Amino acid sequence: MKKNIFDSKYVTKKKSGVNSSFLMVFMAVLGVFIMMIMDVNFNTNHNRIRKVAQIEREYLLLMESDGCLPMADMTNLRQKLIDLGYVENISISAPTSPVAYGEEIVLQIDCDMQFEDVEIKDLFHISKKPFMVRKTFKEETTAKH
When you count CB atoms within 10 A of the terminal residue's CB, does the N or C end of the chain come out lower? Predict the structure, then answer.
């Protein structure tokens, strides 16, 4: 007996199969989209920390060769951090007068950093909500001047 492709049972089976596979693909694409947004958000926040740490490392190397962090360099360090745009309430702790060769020197930066959190309200409303975190960056080295 030959199957009739216009039979109602045959048409509904095919139709429901198409709908369920479309729904599964849609859900998978939606999941990947949400994961991409979260990944971009994480990397943005992580890069902010890396930039502050990189600036701190630059001034630590200056301290290593000079044996201290003069007030002019401390002012420049503070200004570089402020220029990033997401660093506030900066407190810098470092020796301002030269220490002896081989002595340990410490550069500590305490600051409030602004990060962003992704808030997904529904499929078409994704917003970023800023929040502040107090961070401490502390590096040690020895004077080599």
Answer: N
